[in-house]
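Hi R.,

As promised, here are both runs. First protein below:
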Amino acid sequence: MGDSERPDTTMRFGVFEVDPRSGDLRRSGTRIRLQDQPFKVLIALLEHPGEVVTREELQVRIWPQESFGDFDHAVNVAVAKLRAALGDSAEVPRYVETLHRRGYRFIFPLAGTGGPNPGVATTQESIRSTIAPALNASAQPIPSKLRSWTRLSAVLVVGLLGAATFAFWTYRRLAQPTRMNSPEMEITKVTNKGNVDSVAISPDGRYLVYAFPDKERLGLWTREIGTQSEVQILRSEEPLVINGLTFSPDGTHVYFSRIVNESARHSHLYRLPVLGGTPQLLIKDVDSPVGFSPDGGRFVFVRKDLKRNAAEVRLANADGTGERLLTTVNEAGSVWSQSGGSWSPDGQTIAVSVAFWPGKPGSELATISVADGSVHALYTSQDTYEMGRPLWLPEGDALVVVLYDNKVGGRLWTISYPAGEAKPLTHDFENYDPLINMTRDGKTIAANASAMAFNIYVLQATDFSRAQQLTFGRHFVNSVTVGPDGRLLVHELLNPQGELWKMSADGSQRVLFSSLRNIGIFTIRCGTFVLFVAAPKGTQELIRVDADGLNPKTLTSGNIWSPSCSLDGRFVFYADLVIRPQRILRISIEGGDPVEIAKVSGDGMTGTMDVSPDGRFLAYPYHASQPDTFGLIVVPVEGGAPVKTFPIIDADCVRWSPDGTGIDLNLTRDGIENIFEQPLAGGELRQLTKFTSGRFSDDSWSPDGKQMYVAHGEMSRDVVLISNFR
């Protein structure tokens, strides 16, 4: 049989092509050098995508004559070389996942066969020459006094993942996919930077604009998709936070909102030529990406109102003039940035994603009449703690949106219009960020896909510079608590059953802690008991169990936020953030009626709350609109005037030090997140942990104050293009 008659055996995933016959591995058409044994490992994994290939199977297939010691070294080296060729990471795998002491698994979806990917031409002049020469191509430095405030946008995972902390009330699982993406769908990885923040695709599908740090400075880049050439179009003197990108309908400008005030978290909207220049300030206080009308003359955006707990849907002309209120959505004034809205192809309807926060479960995809501002709930789900940016398909009969829950993460769905029927679009292992973009013809989606791994570490109070890792693998531990018996209680995000596990203090002997399901992230030690918030019947309940997980007792139900236990184990404090003004309540460990003890300071609580070891004070982050500030506050448990306030705008997860002399906070400084201690007496922050990369999702002191257990890990975010999905 001639070469032209042989069947195509090429395997494709993302930008990679693998030819088993020739032994070639190519990235975007360029051959990558890979030795024989790593290549054979790759073939073995590709032949069983999504399945575990054991080390024993690899030994029989590739190293049948090697002794155990020689094989163990050989396979480790081969996998390391394979990962290096793919640009992959063992800690946060995108392609090859390690299953400790078992083997390996290929986790990226394989694409259908087809023609080879185009070759790559790379010059910045190429991209400049293909866009209208009238654009100013000089990227000017922009002075900024803003510190990087990344903890707000990702309180547990960093992008992703942040909203998961404020999503503990999401309990039941979205319909689980039973298959991978169809062979026709193609998911192509475009960047390999690991820290892309936002992305937009031009209406014609030729260009991308995306944000990522350059030497710890967040900047914007324009990339020509066909040649992969790119040019930086915005550089900042200091890190800044981008809240969504959108191309203008004619493809000549990019609109973006960014946080610009060091003492508050408000975003302002700017317009910038796609090849750089001086950004033009259009509107202040814009908390979402913009969505353009079909004729390009107007756009829609969302402005949050923390004091009223409302989200205003507003319209403006393309140049920022003529701003007006279209409608207001109540119970949606989240401290998080909003996903924004999308204009229907006929120009009569705007779709807006609404995340109800706090207390009211779930999210809603609402449609709003442009003519009169009337609101209709197209799709509502109590299982979904966040809905991403909705995008209309060109026919106007459906929208594409990312739906999140804390059991399966972020997946792409279609919502039919006007029926409101939801169907999963993607079934792969990727977790997609909420702010997706789509070409004008509806054939290509640009999205950030994230992979993450958070494990448990222990640090000794006498030496915070050394962290001992206790768990390994692709976990996403988002809650760790030391129980009354010294064992660790662990909750994981993307846990289909919402279970709580326990393990020994060294990370071994993991077993199920309780038979209850749908447990949220709040788990605390309270004397000889363990308390957690769960929804076994669909409603939030504060449940007490014995140290062994038995004898559950519901103490109260309703809107329960951030429970904290007094040192003597007699009382539990928690917040109700739904009723305005927000309240702090106390309930006996034996149950009974909750008693309101204080109002939340300012306009509302913006993170978790903790009671001091002596039971006298409560500490929590807050927001106040008069004047407009964020900070950390310490108040007496019986209410009254604040004892201390600290101007720490990025405080969210709060924990008292064991001796009560300080408050521990997860903060990002100089681009790196660590745990700092704010002395109660005042003064400078004191850095405790010494991590050089990664993020925290939780921390817990041992009862004797000698060890700190932390959930720490990495998250990788890169741009992917999704096509052939409809």
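And here is the second one, sequence first, then its structure tokens:
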Amino acid sequence: MNTDELLDIICKSLKSILGDKACFNVLFNNDVVFSGGLGITSYEYMQLIFNLEKDYNLAFDNEIWEYNKIITIGDLMSYIHTNKICPDCDRYINNTTFLFHKVIEYNSEHIPNKVAIISDFSDGITYKQLWLFVKDGIAELEEQGLHYNDSILFYLPNSLDFIVNYFACAYLGLRIILCDIKLIHELIYIINENNVTSILVDDKTIENIRLLKENHILCCNILRANSYILKSDRTDIALRNYKIDENDISIILYTSGSEGRPKGVANSYKNITESIKNYCRTIPFNKSDKFIAAIPFYHSYGMGSCLLAGLASGSTLIIMSSFQPEKVLNVIEKMKATVFHGVPYMYKMLNYCLSKAETDLSSLRLCINASSKLNLEDAKKFYDLTGIIIHQEYGSTETGTIAFYRNYNFITNLDCVGEPLLGVVVNICNPDDKGIGKIAITSNAIALGYINTLDFSNVNYVTGDIGYFDKYGRIILLGREKRFINITGIKINAYEVENVICNHPKVKMAYVFGIKNSYFGEAIKALVVKEDSSLSKEELITYCKSKLTSYKVPTQIEWCDQLDLTQLGKATMNNQY
């Protein structure tokens, strides 16, 4: 890329950002200053770098993001030429011939000494070392008698164990079942639905599994994840040729179902690979990035946008087994982390801690929010405390990430969820006269389907979300067609809670919905019509606790004489008002 071509690229990118800004003409002078009245703001500068990475496939290290080091366009061009910035061909994500499960092997060959994982138990494991652990895990799993197409349930928090076993299982062609480690009552259903033969646990989660085993309702083989790694002296394991078809089921992620039970979403090797490529080609992660991995890996957001995207970009994952806001802030400051994936609840907790003690978060260049909309008060407080704008991401378990908003305008980052990722087409089905309708997705990243049907289409898959495009082509979400309650980013199906309550012999009818909660986003409220007047709130809550995971138990119960019903005898949303 010669100087004229590079200048032309920079100028085109600036024009797309600034439009008719008054000082636009002077920007084409190589001596223009990027700060002050004659230049562009730090946010416009960051947007410029975003555009150069995304639209022209340039890969910068983190120094380029330091606004005060690049003063003029001439400085930027000099930096690019001096550092030989070019399309990052070493990135796994740019190699279209591999499926996702080979990312560790690929990086071990191309960036062997780059640190891949930092955790509580390790100061730094390189991609070369991580690949050795994965190979050791493959050998151990085979010795345990696990073979192609066997189903294995991961009942693990974020950890090095999770990652090693995840890639080892994917290499063997096992079906990996991921679910919330807080689930207990639902586990038997998930295990039976998938014919699970083995469950992977650690020292903490084994207690719940042991309880099920003692009650004689569990017959699976229990494997301790930490028995597979950091113990073997086999450093030169020769892997045989594991034949994996790109359409094989690799991962089954459990999400709330519309009929009262968790639903298993089956993902193939191909659609997971496409999902990662769409995400990483849209958002310019690079080998210099350090991801804070606090979102649970068993969640599609934590799995795709954090774990797989980070490794596919050759970045470093700093693993947090759970979200502890004070610890997260300390780690960001100490480790100079650059990327943080969170949900509204996390940002609220970070705000609380930041207001108590100052923390240097200047290393962060990307803060991302997903799962639900971030409210204006929390976003503004985070910005006031840190100077960092939070970017909105939109996706689902069924589709992977759909859209991302990378603009540095504070207000518009809250009003919309951005533009579709590269490789994703969004349509509005049956729009009304205002353009509002159901959001439908066309993408090769869409999952195969729910495990009992596998009937998803990668053309115009209807998400169940309602929204429209604004005049700039950004997606505006208005809500969901079905009723879900969002507690700290966890989606609770109101129908599931209703079914449990209505199964109580003293209950005639119930309606469950979410109410605003200042700490958790939403809380669960139940309107209940008694069948037997002797029923107390304490009795009903105790019953719910015996049938539901703790966070699904209503925090408020209100007795009603009757509920508004549809013609089919179902309680309607009118009961909320």
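A quick note on the second one: The chain is about 30% helix and 25% strand. Let me know what you think.

Best,
J.
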